[in-house]
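Example for tutorial group B:
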């Protein structure tokens, strides 16, 4: 049976190489065999303060990036989360069967709430409930994401099962799809931290829109491990292994082939090759990105069509959910 695929990215800023390799690249591949919905999750984005003007810009920027990366709007629906209000409605309902203790255990919440104490917003806390709603609303069974989202997906499965037990079989139990290599791209400045949109450190991340010179600079300045040698060992050589992961994706070569290619080579030569390969991989995507940004009418048409298709499916599910829970009237 075909899986129904759902995934989303927050329009919090420009996307980076981690978003591409961990998520988008998988989406592009899977859309050929399965029906897909790819969402721009703006309701998730506002769990951290956003500038309204920038948020609107970022929504269109992320949509253009999906298309430039190779999401084909004839195969997949692309739409903006807040334009389908059923997401928020289902999130409220699921919130009533989610336990506080379950949300308190979420590592993303712990990281993002940091030292804010009682000033932490309720939205940041209930973020995983909205994510569960996104997925369950469409009966999605496969969710391609980076490794950092595993825990949220596990919770979505728990919530789906609990709802089914209490109200009757309603939701499919979703599964995460995680890339074998590249599911957690690390910061170029600190291989113990994941590459993240919100990392303020210059040079930690490669943006998908960075020009060739910037990409080269960031890779040449990336930290390396002590000792010599280009070998894949994420435990002992996290920085070099991270660069090898980028090269693996950009060149299509296996880790063994890469080790052979750079046997006896220094970090400088290796980094040069990584930079060339990454620049080559992102070049065509950047060209397409500019074309979509220059054609707002086309982008609007795609997002309108995506919203309409998603709304139809979402409303169907919500009618069942409202009936099962006993909300409203016949
Ligand atoms: P933020 O720093 O604002 O939390 P982010 O960079 O983590 O943002 P998200 O919008 O949270 O970006 O993630 C979008 C998708 O990209 C998710 O599927 C996530 O798992 C994936 N992803 C994010 N960072 C990485 C990374 N470093 N390596 C692999 N996948 C990643
Ligand atoms: N929380 C995810 C983004 C997201 C998502 C989803 C991913 C929101 N809803 C549904 C997959 C399925 C993140 O990457 N931070």
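The residue assignment follows.
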């Amino acid at each position: 049976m075909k899986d129904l695929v759902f995934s989303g990215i927050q329009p919090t800023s420009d996307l980076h190489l981690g978003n591409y390799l961990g998520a988008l690249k998988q989406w592009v591949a899977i859309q050929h065999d399965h029906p897909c919905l790819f969402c721009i999750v703006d309701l998730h984005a506002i769990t951290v303060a956003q500038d309204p003007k920038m948020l609107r810009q970022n929504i269109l920027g992320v949509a253009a990036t999906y298309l430039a990366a190779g999401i084909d709007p004839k195969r997949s629906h692309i739409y903006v989360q807040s334009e389908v209000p059923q997401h928020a409605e289902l999130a409220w309902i699921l919130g009533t069967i989610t336990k506080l203790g379950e949300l308190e255990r979420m590592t993303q919440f712990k990281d993002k709430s940091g030292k804010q104490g009682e000033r932490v917003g309720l939205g940041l806390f209930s973020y995983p409930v909205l994510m569960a709603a996104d997925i369950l609303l469409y009966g999605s069974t496969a969710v391609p994401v980076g490794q950092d989202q595993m825990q949220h997906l596990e919770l979505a499965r728990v919530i789906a099962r609990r709802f089914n037990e209490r109200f009757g079989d309603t939701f499919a139990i979703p599964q995460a799809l995680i890339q074998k290599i590249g599911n957690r791209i690390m910061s170029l400045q600190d291989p113990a931290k994941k590459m993240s949109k919100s990392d303020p450190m210059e040079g930690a991340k490669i943006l998908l829109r960075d020009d060739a010179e910037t990409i080269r600079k960031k890779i040449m300045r990336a930290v390396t491990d002590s000792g010599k040698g280009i070998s894949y060992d994420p435990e002992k050589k996290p920085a070099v292994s991270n660069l090898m992961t980028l090269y693996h994706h950009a060149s299509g070569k296996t880790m063994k082939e890469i080790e052979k290619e750079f046997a006896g080579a220094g970090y400088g030569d290796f980094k040069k090759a990584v930079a060339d390969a990454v620049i080559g991989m992102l070049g065509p995507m950047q060209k397409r990105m500019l074309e979509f940004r220059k054609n707002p009418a086309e982008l609007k048409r795609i997002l309108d069509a995506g919203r309409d298709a998603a709304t139809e499916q979402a409303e169907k599910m919500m009618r069942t959910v409202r009936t099962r829970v006993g909300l409203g009237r016949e």
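The chain has a mean pLDDT of 96. Compare this with the pattern of hydrophobic and polar residues in the output above.
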